[in-house]
Amino acid sequence: MLRVWERRYGAVEPIRTDGGQRLYSDADIERLRLLSLVTAAKRSISLVARLPADELARLVREDEEARQRVGILDGPAANRAGVADDVGEARALARSLDAPGLERALRRSLALMGVPSFLEAVAMALVRHIGEDRKAGRLAAGAEHLVAVTLRRVLEGIIPVLHVSSEAPNLLLATPAGDRHEIEAVMAAATAAVEGWCVTYLGPGVPASEIAAAAVNASARAVGVTVPRVGGRDLLLEELRALRLRLSARVPLLVGGAGARALAPELRRAGIHVIESLADLRVALRVAGRSEAP
């Protein structure tokens, strides 16, 4: 793993002995320790490998604080169980199509945890479980749509009240043509707002040509596309490759969702950043935020 991190991603540059053996300095070892911790939080090594040590340390601290908020790190068993209880309650309310109850439960979790922890500990877990329930045939008709609509209402309610500077960089968000599932895009928008970005959300099913044109008109510093599912594989790849070619080379294309993870090798070869988690997205936005505006 160390050789892959070194050779493919430039994470460290150890010196060599006359015999060709690698010698790692104390600074190399500390950097590798930090990289191990931040990738354990589901960030891609490709996104964090070249971050400075102080930024890596900051990410580790944030992860520890987030885990403490949801009772995972050195917290009492009651707190740890509380997160699972919140997800279980929301899941049961969705199955019974109790829309008011689901919204109350989600708003309560959001208020107790704060936006970042809620997104990762509850919202993402709920969406994943509901998807599993749908595939297993355990879900009433309309329940998955109910979760998406309710989560969107809860998150869209808090995005406007997050303080974002008028000079903040702009993230353009959409889902590609042919895809109408947008809840992951809404969660990405909330994550970006927490990171201090302005967000221009185009909605679902937008062709590559329109996304690229909107990115120029909105002076987007980055473009995000969520792909919850892989439908027509070849058409989707063609659409995303076309979008990458239409964008300025200085504007990163960030593609997330289960569909993106399934197409990760092909997307990376096309110069597209694959976002595997909300933690990944936060890192990608911080890197993009430090770059020059296109």
What structural keywords apply?
294 residues; Multidrug-efflux Transporter Regulator, Chain: A, Domain 2; Methyltransferase, Methionine Synthase (B12-binding Domains), Chain A, domain 1; Rossmann fold; 3 domains; two-stranded antiparallel ribbon; 14 helices; 9% strand
Description:
With 294 residues, the chain is of the alpha/beta class. It folds into three domains: 2-69, Orthogonal Bundle (Multidrug-efflux Transporter Regulator, Chain: A, Domain 2); 77-159, Methyltransferase, Methionine Synthase (B12-binding Domains), Chain A, domain 1, CATH 1.10.1240; 164-290, Cobalamin-binding domain (Rossmann fold). The chain has 14 helices and seven strands. A hairpin with a 5-residue loop joins strand 1 and strand 2. Helix 5 packs across helix 7 and helix 6 runs antiparallel to helix 7. Residues 72-79 have low confidence and may be disordered.
| Alpha-carbon Rg, integer | 20 Å
Identify the CATH architecture of the largest domain: 3-Layer(aba) Sandwich
Per the principal axes of the C-alpha atoms, what is the gross shape? globular
Class per helix and strand makeup: alpha/beta
H/E element order: HEEHHHHHHHEHEHEHEHHEH
Q: Look at the structure and give the mean pLDDT.
A: 85
Low-confidence segments: 72-79
